[in-house]
Amino acid sequence: MSLYHPRKAPVLDWPLTVIYYLYAALVTLVLGLWGLPQVLVRPERAQRVASVWLGQMLGAARLILGVRVEYRGTPPVGDCIVASKHQSFLDILALARACPRRAFVMKREVLRVPIMGWFARKVGCIPIDRARGKEAMKQIISGIEIARARPEGLGQLIIYPEGTRTRPGHKLPYKHGAALIQRATGLPVHPVAVNCGLFWPKRGIPIRGGTTVIEFLPPLPAGPRADEVMEALEASIESASDRLLAEAGGVRPAG
C-alpha cells in the first residue's frame, strides 16, 4: 500500500530537485579533490572533510529545496551503536551530521562509489557482504574491535535494522545485527526515529520542502536474549516514527 501525503509535490519540486543533485555532484567532486591530499597526509582528517561535505549537502537542501532538519533528543557522543529507521538519503545525511565521529555499516558495493566510497572507508565505515550470513557478522564485530582499539575509538556506528529504505508508515522485518553486536561488544544501542520519507522520498525524486524530524530516543540496555533487545528496539523506533509521521500530516497505510 502507498502512503498518502496531505498534498502532492508542486511542479517546481522537480526542477529544484534536479538542480540540487547537480550541485551535490559538483560539491562532492570539488571537496573530494580538496580533501584527498589532506587525508593522505593525515587520515584522521577524513571526519573533518566529511563534516564539511555534510554541511554543504544539508545547507543546499535548505536553500534550494526548502528542506530543514529538526533534531530531537540527545545525539550520542561516545562509542555506541545508532540504530535508525531508514527512509531516504536525507536521514543518512542528517544522522551523520548529528554524530561527531560517525561511521556506517553499509553494503560493500557502496564503498566502490568513486570519491564517496574512498572517504567512507577512511572515516571507518564497515562493509558488509549479506550473502556471507554469519561470516558477515563476524567480520563486522572484528572491524568494530579493531576500531575501538584505535586512540580515537569507534565513534557512533550507524546501522539500519531493516537493512534498506522503507516508505513512511511501512516497516520490514528487523534483522538481529544491532542486538548481536551489542552482546558481542557491550556497546549501548541508541534508537532513532525519522519521518524523512515524507519530504525526501525513497527513490530520491521529487523532493518537497518542509521540516523533517530526526529523534534520538533513550538508549536500550542489553538484554539476556537478542530477540528481546530487537523487540524493544523495533517497538521504540516504529512507535516514535509513526508519531512523527502523524505530526507532519502523513497518513499511515491501513493493514
Quote the CATH topology.
Answer: Glycerol-3-phosphate (1)-acyltransferase
- Number of beta-strand segments: 7
Global mean pLDDT: 90
Overall geometry comes to globular
Which architecture would the CATH scheme give at its second level?
A: 3-Layer(aba) Sandwich
- Which strand order does the major sheet show? 1-7-6-2-5-3-4
Question: How is the biggest beta sheet arranged?
Answer: 7 strands, mixed
Radius of gyration, rounded?
18 Å
CATH class: Alpha Beta
Strand pairing plus helix content: what structural class?
alpha/beta
In whole angstroms, how far apart are the ends? 9 Å
Short recap of the structure:
With 255 residues, this protein is α/β, with parallel strands linked by helices.
How would you explain this protein's 3D organization?
This protein has 255 residues and is of the alpha/beta class. It has a single domain, classed as Glycerol-3-phosphate (1)-acyltransferase (3-Layer(aba) Sandwich), CATH 3.40.1130. The protein is 44% helix and 15% strand. The protein has seven helices and seven strands, in the order H-H-E-E-H-E-H-E-H-E-H-E-E-H. The protein has helices at residues 13-41, 46-65, 89-98, 116-122, 134-148, 177-185, 226-247, and strands at residues 67-72, 80-84, 102-107, 126-128, 156-159, 189-194, 210-216. It has a seven-stranded mixed beta sheet, sandwiched between helices. Strand 3 (102-107), helix 4 and strand 4 form a beta-alpha-beta unit. Helix 1 packs antiparallel against helix 2 and helix 5 crosses helix 6 (177-185). Residues 1-7 have low confidence and may be disordered.
